[in-house]
Amino acid sequence: LSAALAGMLTGDVDLPQATSEALSFLDQSLESGFRPGMGLVIPDRFFWAQPPQDELPDDEADFPPSRLQ
After folding, report:
1. Residue 64, Cβ neighbours under 10 Å: how many?
2. Is residue 59 classed as helix, strand or coil in its secondary structure?
3. What is the pLDDT of residues 37-64, one digit of tens each?
4. 8 membership: H or E segment, kind and range
5. What are the backbone dihedrals phi and psi of residue 15, each rounded to the nearest 5 degrees, phi first?
6. Of 13, 19, 25, 31, which sits with the fewest C-beta atoms within 10 Å of its C-beta?
7. H and E: helices and strands count for the chain
8. Considering only CA atoms, which of 15, 19, 16 is closest in space to residue 2?
9. Which residues of 14-50 are buried (b: 16+ CB within 10 A; e: fewer)?
């Protein structure tokens, strides 16, 4: 969260908007994350670089793109 907030503040973004966008980034990276076993979620910080699920071919749509390799 602190790195995302610092990155937003380096631009011309005011503090309330930067905080909101940093929290949104954190939420989305945790939603796109991977939970190995019963442990904590490993965030997927590159969720924004992957195509949306509806743009994937049918055989790949059931799996997140980060686990197809």
Report:
1. 15
2. helix
3. 888 888 887 877 777 766 666 655 555 5
4. helix 2-9
5. -60, -45
6. 31
7. 2, 0
8. 19
9. eeeebbeebeebbeebbebbeeeeeeeeebbbebeee
